[in-house]
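Whether sequence alone determines local backbone shape is best considered at the level of individual chains. In the encoding step, the backbone of a single protein was reduced to a row of integers, each denoting a local shape. For completeness, the protein is quoted in full, as a sequence line and a line of structure tokens.
***
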Amino acid sequence: MHKKEIHTDKREVVIAVRQLQKSFANNHVLRGVDLDVHQGENVVVLGRSGTGKSVLIKIIAGLLKQDSGTAMVLGENVATLDRKELRKFRLRIGFSFQSSALYDSMTVRENLEFPLLRNSRNLGRAAVDKAVQEVLEDVGLPQTVNQFPAELSGGQRKRIGIARTLIMRPSVMLYDEPTAGLDPITSVEINSLINEVQERYNTSSIIITHDLTCAKATGDRMAVLLDGKFESVGSFEEVFATNDERINSFYDYNFID
């Protein structure tokens, strides 16, 4: 089911990317990318593997530096932040990795406590327990608190990975291929969770995917990354109302009801 359109014209811009360029040797991945993300908006970035989607969000999160251009996030010019400023900045950014990035040797509780105890050392045990319980309930998995990642399904690991980012109450969420490797039913559940996070936490999000079902279900707007630039930005219907075969070819690899 397609999301209701939100009106972005009067909303604050929380991510502003301008003329972003990034190359690795002779591989010119980003060739002058421009993108705005408004407060409370989910923006889907569509593109084939190797087109620079993940590079884009790593630059936004301060994990990579661009060659030129700017990425303004929550009022900060990310590339100019020093180490201390960058650490503080990243506390406001939730990064949901494709692999979920959980520690196998830790229980779910310990995985969730780790970022909280590392960055909020003045919290007492009761406050930590409450935070863990709340995020587990928010992702629908309170019963997994004492389990290890190896005991969880792929979809459950994905949910716990999202919960670990939510425990820090981020303003921005960055999802890297959130439905990759999941069966269709679990993918629908993850799509619903992304929308619930948007509503419950009032997050502004970029969702990297090549899954059109995910794109249609979660995106208020979407942007198609082709040859290092965004060739089309708009609603799902606007993006695919085109004769551009490079964009329409996504339909050849996706099934949408």
Remarks:
- Residues 32 and 144 are 44 Å apart (CA to CA).
- The chain is about 35% helix and 25% strand.
- The first helix runs from residue 53 to 60.
